[in-house]
Specification:
2 domains, alpha+beta, five-stranded mixed beta sheet, D-Maltodextrin-Binding Protein, domain 2, single chain, 25% helix
Length: 283
Amino acid sequence: MTRSPGQTKSIVGEICILAEKAGTEAMRFYKGGASVTLKEDSSPLTDADRASHDFLMRFLPGLIPGVPVISEESQNPTHGLADAQGRFWLVDPLDGTKEFLKGTGEFTVNIAMIEQSRPVIGVVHAPAIGLTYFADLVNGSFRQKQNDPPERIRVQPPAQPRLRVVASKDHAGPAVKAMLARLPEAELKSMGSSLKFCLVAEGSADLYLRDVPTMEWDTAAAQCIVEAAGGRVCTLDGNPLRYGKPGLKNPAIITVGDPNLQWTNLLDANSLTADPCSTDSHA
């Protein structure tokens, strides 16, 4: 589907508003107000997840009638629900539930539009810190702090050998540990939720390796922000990460700001043989 810059900006603006309102719903339970249960994969589910999910499932379908919505908290999230033009919404109502429960503020509402297996619009809103990243492949990537004017963001070339590497606080797998061992001068940045990808998009970090599996709703919105800022999110065979896969599970991925960075030289092949699929994928 071809959109004009004006049409795309309008849609992105409306998605940002919905993400902010969903974040407000989640914040009603922040710092002590949420009951917690465990899902089948042992990841936490709170009242805040449900409140954000319920809000988005109520209002997001009205933006573009007929486009289905897949949410992490849907009863039976599945692939194969795209409309005739290959579009569907992919939503994580509260990415970083563990960060929410710890009170760090590093949790987000993620909303992406997938079109022909690729994220073409993405919004990542962090309600506790009043920060929103948004992007589309027509107009580029932006960062907005509360009511300040949005600022365009772009990836930056790395300053080797002191690469700025993003690592998950809770999910650094064997390949990440092996890569860091090869980069003794690296500057390590730690962040929760999909904000890790946004560090690369805004030029604050150079790469982010995720060898522990994620789900598609964990990555879609942030991938659009990275790609619209000039970076890449790809599987370890070098192909772009795509969406609508059976089971909605992602393989190991790497996010780089500079598309020309020779990141394959940083990986330890032996560390990639471990099967991390039994590990919880939720940040």
